[in-house]
Specification:
The complex is a heterodimer of chains A (407) and B (411). Chain A is an alpha/beta fold. Chain A is built from 15 helices and 14 strands. In chain A, strands 3-2-1-4-5-6 form a six-stranded parallel beta sheet, with helices on both faces. In chain A, strands 9-10-11 form a three-stranded antiparallel beta sheet, covered by helices on one side. The chains are: A alpha/beta (407), B alpha/beta (411). The interface between A and B is large, with 156 and 151 residues.
């Protein structure tokens, strides 16, 4: 079996913005050739590094976001012959994924009109912070700045009692780049499905700003329908009406996400018995707790407050993973607030083969990292090769091109 | 709308809440015929979700439902009725995609797992979105978006040092599981176009989350370092690459903030000039990135003193013109009413809704030049398209449909 994109040729010119989109395509079988300047992609200078020692091939951030790609060095700024090579590669490519500043592809004669004249089936996706036109088209961002402008960040933060005057909070992990990449890939694949029918390629203007703004859940509807800006709360949904806390500290110092208490009678009965088996909630059998309306947070019933306070004491008496497992057995969607790396310790994820081993310069043997975001039965996700060293495939790619040109 | 790139692709949409409907919103935006199968005894809770237009929920007046279910059609079908289940199977027979986000095992209990679906329609692409996937020891566990965020490491990595996690103030993982599902479905469609082969896509919301923090996982498996350590999360300061200044700074007005990130010495010089070259900025404590990182408290105080009396949009324009990466922390209302970029690109569009009147929507991203997506209709009223879809997809006569209606199939 091979991936659903096997046989597709992709040329990628991306740094931090866009490289995850290239990974999503490469991991599903596409042949992604990453064109890099002689000094390497900026993304190679993003840590953490193997043993904290910087080097073009030692960035773990780069390792993760460039799996299954090949790297070819071309000096597009300085060399017309390298630009001609890029055009020749793009003449036989299916997809061009680039994150250049608007206007720069024209300066390099790597713009859609030029490329499509030679290759009408080409799908050219330009991913940029704000899109190809408009007053902010040339504004520059980082992940933080993009999440600020696009709206996600304003939803994350604190109750005043936890952190008075706290700003909106930047969720880490390159999530602006990630959401931008998800939209770019959806667009590329949509164009690909269209091309399956017509043979025609097209140009895609993929604005990260538009992607991010589309991904803020109830934030926009509250404004669109009631002209209300929702208020940030600690560790839970920003809302119009303040809700009860969701984050509770367990005995081992880890936090647990605790919510949806009492919505259904079935899970409430199970929760009650579980707590009571540990000596908590001994008064929950009183009939005033029987009405789900009395148990729901945000409805203001005194019972809800009582329940939340008792649950908090209960959580504090157990270890976080035991709270998570016990609550799930009651049908409650609680979860441990894990550090990203703690997922590696979860046996369920290993049952599914979720973690895969990669390697690179400076590492003896290999190391686990997250693998497939989706499990496709006929055309599975596959790690065929680790992230490329800088220029590792330059000669190979040029030789393939020479062969193809001879034919 | 025959020019839409996914027109002709019929999707049986058994999803509800947010994750599944987000996937089908994307597909519908690009022309797929998304048929939302609904049941009056178990309505999509988002039909009752705030904000509501009017005094009380009618099932058709939720602004939030309208927001994530535009461009779809709604069919009432009681699948607990044998005729209802039969109609569902007949719809699957003439469709391309089935998508659901029930707990693992639910569709198997309907005797509609993938092998049986494939018996009905060999080419079907079946996408299940569940918390933990359909295999593995914890497959019965359930998640909401925030659960996947917590287990996947997204909650802990968002916060101020020494404080509880701020996490994500919405179900980021409902959006992201939805986008991942849409990606997988489109890949499977391309594969089917080439080979004729359908398949099962087993989406786990937790796995869709863990893949969003790969470098932090590698930092542990390569360098032996967990993110659960002193100083992390670093609030709005940078993790990697480690640069300073990199933070949010207060501006004029209530809860107004600007994010500023300096990633190189030229950008630092540009910021210094934009601030009017204050004396403090020439102190050697701020003379290099390493020095600024070591003195971030003082650095951030100086910058905040400069921003606090200024308008955030004015600052953004000033800094960006100078070459400094900066943006207002925009609120929803800011995006709709003030963001000049959205205005210039005609991002906000209107769709008429029978109960809510003209409703405003965000546009379709990304922008495809030859086959762009389009806003075609507002979210469907419950059961609005039952007769239309059954007549069109299954060639049922009006009399046959009346018969099913009398038998209690459409409820």
């Amino acid at each position: 079996m091979s991936g659903p994109l096997a046989g597709l040729r992709v040329i990628e010119i991306c740094d931090e913005l866009g490289q995850y989109a290239g990974k999503l395509l490469a991991d599903m079988g596409a042949d992604v050739v990453k064109l890099e300047p002689p000094e390497g992609s900026e993304a190679r200078r993003v840590g953490p590094f193997v043993d904290d020692e910087p080097g073009p091939n030692r960035s773990l951030n780069f390792w993760y976001h460039n799996t299954n790609k090949r790297s070819a060095v071309l000096d597009l700024d300085a060399s017309e012959s390298d630009r001609a090579t890029a055009r020749a590669l793009l003449a036989r490519a299916d997809i061009f994924l680039e994150a250049m500043t608007p206007g720069r592809p024209i300066a390099l004669a790597l713009d859609y009109d030029t490329l499509a004249a030679a290759n009408p089936g080409l799908i050219h996706c330009a991913i940029t912070p704000f899109g190809q036109d408009g007053p902010w088209a040339h504004y520059r961002v980082t992940d933080l700045v993009a999440l600020a402008a696009g709206g996600p960040m304003n939803m994350n933060g604190y109750d005043p009692e936890d952190a008075p005057g706290a700003p909106p909070i930047h969720g880490k992990g390159d999530q602006a780049w990630n959401t931008g990449a998800h939209f770019a890939v959806m667009g590329i694949l949509t164009a690909l499905v269209a091309r399956d029918a017509t043979g025609q390629g097209q140009y895609i203007d993929s604005s990260m700003h538009e992607a991010l703004s589309s991904a803020t859940e109830v934030g926009l509807p509250h404004w669109l329908y009631t002209k209300t800006n929702i208020t940030r709360q600690t560790g839970r949904h920003a809302a119009v009406i303040r809700s009860e806390p969701w984050i509770h500290r367990a005995r081992d110092g880890k936090d647990v996400l605790v919510f949806n208490i009492g919505r259904s009678n079935e899970s409430w009965g199970k929760l009650k018995r579980w707590m009571q088996s540990h000596g908590f909630g001994m008064n929950f059998d009183e009939s005033r707790f029987d009405d789900p309306m009395n148990r729901m947070a945000a409805r203001g019933a005194p019972e809800a407050k009582e329940i939340f306070a008792e649950v908090s004491r209960f959580v504090a008496a157990l270890d976080a993973e035991d709270v998570y497992r016990g609550a799930q057995a009651c049908g409650l969607p609680w979860g441990t607030v894990r550090s990203p790396d703690e997922a590696v310790d979860d046996p369920h994820l290993h049952d599914r083969g979720h973690f895969v081993a990669t390697t690179g310069e400076g590492l003896e043997g290999d190391a686990l990292m997250p693998g497939a975001p989706y499990v496709l039965s006929a055309t599975p996700w596959e790690l065929r090769r680790p992230a490329p060293k800088l220029g590792e495939h330059t000669n190979e790619v040029l030789a393939e091109l020479a062969d193809a040109t001879r034919e | 709308m025959s020019s839409l790139p996914l027109s002709g692709i019929r999707v049986i949409d058994l999803t509800w809440i947010i994750a599944g409907p987000t996937a089908t919103r994307y597909l519908a935006d690009f022309g797929a015929d998304v048929i939302k199968i609904e049941h009056e005894q178990a309505v999509d809770p988002i039909r009752l979700g705030r904000p509501i237009v009017g005094d009380a929920p009618t099932l058709n007046n939720s602004g939030f439902f309208n927001y994530i279910n535009r461009n779809k059609r709604s069919v009432l079908l009681n699948v607990r009725h044998p005729f209802g289940m039969d109609l569902l199977k007949r719809l699957i027979e003439v469709s391309d995609v089935v998508i659901e986000n029930f707990s693992a095992g639910t569709l198997a209990s309907w005797e509609l797992d993938y092998p049986r679906m494939r018996d009905i329609n060999e080419r079907i692409i079946y996408c299940s979105i569940s918390g933990f996937g359909h295999t593995g020891r914890d497959r019965e566990n359930t998640t909401w978006g925030p659960t996947a965020q917590a287990l996947g490491g997204l909650t802990l990595t968002s916060g101020l040092p020494g404080k509880p996690p701020a996490g994500w103030g919405y179900s980021y993982m409902d959006h992201t599981a939805g986008y991942s599902a849409a990606i997988a479905i489109l890949m499977a469609l391309h594969h089917r176009n080439r080979t004729g082969e359908g398949q099962h896509i087993d989406m786990s919301q937790v796995e869709a989350a863990t893949v969003l923090n790969g470098p932090a996982v590698l930092d542990r498996t390569v360098n032996g370092r967990t993110w659960r350590r002193e100083g992390l999360p670093p609030g709005n300061r940078a993790w990697e690459p480690a640069v300073a200044p990199h933070n949010t700074y207060p501006c004029l007005g209530e809860d107004r903030w600007i994010a500023i990130a300096v990633t190189s010495e030229p950008e630092w010089e540009a910021l210094v000039r934009a601030m009017g070259e204050p004396d403090w900025s020439r102190n050697q404590r701020f003379g290099s990135n390493a020095a600024r990182l070591a003195n971030q408290d003082a650095l951030d105080e100086h910058i905040a003193a400069w921003t606090t009396e200024r308008d955030d949009y004015d600052l953004m324009a000033l800094l960006q013109a100078a070459g400094v990466r900066a943006a207002v922390c925009q609120k929803p209302g800011d995006r709709v009413e003030r963001d000049p970029q959205f205005a210039a690109r005609n991002w906000w569009q209107t769709l008429p809704h029978p109960e809510m009147g003209d409703t405003l929507h965000d546009g379709v991203a990304p922008r495809l030049s030859a086959t762009p997506g389009a806003l075609q209709r507002a979210a469907p009223c419950i059961g609005e398209h039952t007769r239309e879809v059954l007549a069109e997809a299954l060639n049922l006569t009006e009399a046959e449909i009346d018969g099913f209606a009398e038998a209690g199939v459409f409820m």
